[in-house]
User: Fold this.
Amino acid sequence: MSQQTQLLDSSQNRKTMLILEDFGRNLGLTFYALFALFPLVWMVICSLKADAEMYNTVFVFTPTLDNYKAVLLGTDYFKAFFQNLVVSGGAVLLTVVAGVPAAYALARYDFKKKEDVAFQILSFKFAPEIMVILPVFLIFQKIGLYDTYFGLIWVYQLITMPLLIWVVRGYFEDISVEVEQAAQLDGYRWFDVFFKTLVPLIKPGLVASGLLAFIFAWNSFTFPLVLSGFNIQTITITSLRYIASDTVHYGQVAVAALIAVLPEITARLFIQKHLVRGLSFGAVKG
Amino acid sequence: MARITLERIVKRYGKNVALDGLDLDIQDNEFFVLFGPAGAGKTTLLKTIAGVEFPQEGLIKIGDEIVNHVEPMYRNVSMVFENYALYPHLNVYDNIASPMRSKLYRQDEATIHQQVERVTKMMKIDHLWERRPSQLSNGQRQRVAIGRCLVRSPNVFLMDEPLAHLDAKLRHFMRGELKEMQSSFNSTTIYVTHDYMEAMSLADRIAVLNYGKIEQLGTSLEMYYTPCNEFVARLFGEPEINIFPGEVEEENGCLGVRALGQQELMPIEEDAAQVLREKEVRQVDVGIRGNDISFSFTPREGSMAGTVYANEPIGNKVVMTVDIHGTHLSLVAPNDTQARIDQPVYIRLNMKNAIFFDGQTQEYITRSQAQSHICSKGMPISERG
Assistant:
């Protein structure tokens, strides 16, 4: 009898422990969430403040939508937003179209200096943009790519392509050659093999690195600053405009930045489940 | 429904030669086994026939048509890959249905269902239709791979170690099933294995491959009784054939072998002695299988004294290794044999079944043909010189 109560006791104890553990974990995560989200919250608050209240209030102030009005209606913010979308989307599209075959070639075929080529591609990502920007500027002036969509999309490949090639290459290498060969023997043409067998297998990596490429392109600052002028203005450059020579309209900068991160956040939420899996290499299992 | 001919196939990977000028002629409806150690080029040969690897030299013909430049999909071959090569993103059903859904071999869904049901029942995996390959054990994956291969009826089946990862009982069952299917299916099968029992029980003919070359080509019995060299002899049979060096000497008009540090000559059968005399060989390697050695624990006439080196019971028999002056001979003993290590033992070799190899080249010279089990089956063993 006493043993039974003891058993009951111990199971009771275990239950309490489990509840405490859950509670502790959630508490910790809540604190981290607050910490991670605070800059965003701060930005939202700033965007609702008038310039006069910017420095002398913290959480208590009279909210106003003036900043939103000024940015969205007073300037050509939407044009910049759209142009940024075109440039970044175009860059990602080109990266996928050219990068996936490149990754396949690097994974499957043996050619001379293969590793050197692969490393060269990766090294584009190491080089600071500012280092190559002047020659690129001069060349673009000469060949008429300055301040064009295509010029920006092209130069963005330097920052979007390397990561995608390396991630997707890893995925291709994880798929055994025999799977492709089996599909060929099953009666599929190479084209079908590629889209029916290979693409589903590399999809997590493709989606994740595609999203990162989009974010790199969206956030890019140096290239559009130097290589575009009046025709094309990306959102990063436009946001600068609210920093005037005499005053800085922090409220307006906050609005511009807040809207600028929206597409990134939305895209990320949509493909969250691919993101972590996609970037941990070797997720393909036979 | 096709005869397969390979002419002087050469396949190199960089500097490594995988197939070295290989000639092969596989008959229509033949069950042909490729046998050999790891790295011999067996898989490369299969892939070359399938068309997923391309030889640098030579011709491949399927049914008298040269297929060197025919895409794999148009060769109408079906292959089981050694590493299964299942589609990771499809479940078992879709994996097996895949060949019947391609443009080339398309069937309607009702037929597909029926066929998938048929092969999965046969492979005993019909309860796993919904599983992904990653949720299967290796044996189950292998059966899915076999199923995908058997689901359609191609010209040629290529099977790369298809039973290697199955448990013993299932392997035995599948062996029978494959043989049965082969005879009813009417198609050529090329089968790679490194299990000599599988090779011997399934094959119409066996090719032993080593370093990208064919060492010997023939039936199971030819491989076993008249191996063309010591390498082939060692591949077939369990325990491995005993091969020891000896010298051919003449005594009282009879030839015998002096070996294993024995005083007495080991007798050589008259017909074998004739060949040895003609070829004037002195250095020979004598090959003798474990079941041609008898033993007792008390001295008998004409027996050699040795000590027990190891005694391994393996179910239906015991493999005893006997040490004679530093040479180890393995013999097959009844399964209730008990022996202590280093215990004295006396063995007698049945020299009628000895195989003689050239001591230098290790090539087959001769064996006595007086043995009834070969001649009664009419095996043409005399064709080889």
